[in-house]
Recover the amino acids of this structure.
């Protein structure tokens, strides 16, 4: 069981994290949760259930304990930002157990120390945008990320949103920024198409209300429709397998509504599958020897573009190369190789421009 092998933060004995690859950080902050106050108790309950799951050998994981809520929510944000920045500096992946989803803002702010632009993938039933001048909360944190200076955000993808919960004006605003939106039906029709989206993320933020009530009742915002539990676990496994992803968080679990601890147990299993995925990382991003890839060139006659595709011989995963403007190399070179699927290649072969390529091209050009 993980409880016997994980490095724990015990009184007077902070774990040695020199060889640690992944660190669990609990944050019992719920003051900006929009009424979902019981999510403050989630970290300990998720931790208890995770400790009962089977141990994965050869993987060193530390549980750093909980960040205590500060005198103000901003104090908590600052503490989480500092912890995440320290872990990222050491190339340790923070696994954040919230708390409310506005903590994603602090996770994002930690990347300013790395001085790199990042991609965020949010799995949520709603668009947490809100009004530009509204106070930060679990329902508005994305607008604060968009306003953050200096801007670190290159791409934002929302997965699993339900059309009946979103404002069409917010959808249009997101699309005008060439960000990605994937409805719940799109994800469930073809889960494999979710893999390239997750593979492109630096940060994955998961709102537990994206899962249907029958599988995850433990949140104030639970609804009849949503992802199945096994689909949520698959998304976390995809995240673990991504060479690019460097932090992940799960939020809005309310223990007051959690029947028989079903939701905290599911969250623990999601973390378990993330760890399993991490052990299956293949380091196959197209930056090494060309012999490890097959290269395909597709000329888009109608758009006067050539799209170069790369297929990894290690994993059969696909990427598209997107050109960027002169002088932008240092800032954008991390983003010119866009994860895609075989279906994107097939689409290009029929003279139809893949949306992923076009949206990335608009931001890079």
């Amino acid at each position: 069981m993980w409880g016997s092998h994980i490095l724990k933060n015990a009184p007077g004995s902070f774990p040695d994290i020199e060889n640690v690859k992944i660190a669990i950080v609990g944050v019992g902050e719920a003051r900006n949760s929009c009424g979902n106050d019981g999510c403050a108790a989630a970290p300990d309950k998720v931790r208890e259930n995770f400790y009962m799951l089977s141990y994965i050998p050869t993987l060193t994981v530390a549980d750093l304990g909980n960040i205590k809520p500060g005198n103000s929510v901003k104090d908590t944000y600052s503490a989480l930002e500092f912890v995440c920045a320290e872990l990222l500096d050491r190339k340790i992946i923070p696994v954040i157990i919230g708390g409310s989803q506005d903590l994603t803002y602090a996770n994002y702010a930690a990347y300013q120390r790395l001085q790199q632009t990042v991609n965020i993938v949010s799995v949520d039933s709603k668009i947490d945008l809100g009004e530009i001048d509204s106070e930060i909360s679990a329902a508005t944190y994305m607008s604060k990320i968009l306003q953050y200076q200096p801007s670190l955000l290159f791409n934002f993808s929302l997965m699993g949103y339900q059309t009946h919960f979103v404002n069409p004006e917010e959808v249009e605003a997101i699309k005008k920024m060439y960000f990605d939106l994937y409805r719940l039906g799109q994800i469930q029709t073809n889960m494999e198409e979710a893999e390239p989206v997750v593979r492109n993320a630096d940060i994955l933020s998961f709102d537990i209300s994206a899962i249907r009530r029958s599988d995850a009742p433990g949140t104030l915002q639970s609804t009849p429709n949503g992802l199945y539990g096994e689909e949520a676990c698959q998304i976390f496994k995809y995240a673990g397998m991504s060479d690019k992803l460097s932090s992940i968080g799960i939020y809005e679990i309310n223990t007051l509504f959690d029947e028989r601890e079903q939701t905290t147990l599911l969250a623990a299993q999601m973390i378990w599958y993330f760890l399993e995925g991490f052990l299956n990382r293949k380091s196959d991003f197209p930056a090494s020897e060309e012999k490890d890839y097959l290269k395909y060139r597709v000329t888009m006659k109608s758009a006067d573009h050539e799209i170069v595709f790369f297929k990894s011989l290690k994993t059969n995963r696909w990427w598209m190369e997107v050109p960027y403007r002169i002088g932008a190399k240092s800032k954008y070179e991390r983003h010119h190789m866009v994860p895609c699927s075989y279906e994107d290649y097939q689409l290009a072969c029929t003279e139809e421009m893949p949306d992923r390529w076009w949206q990335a091209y608009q931001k890079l050009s």
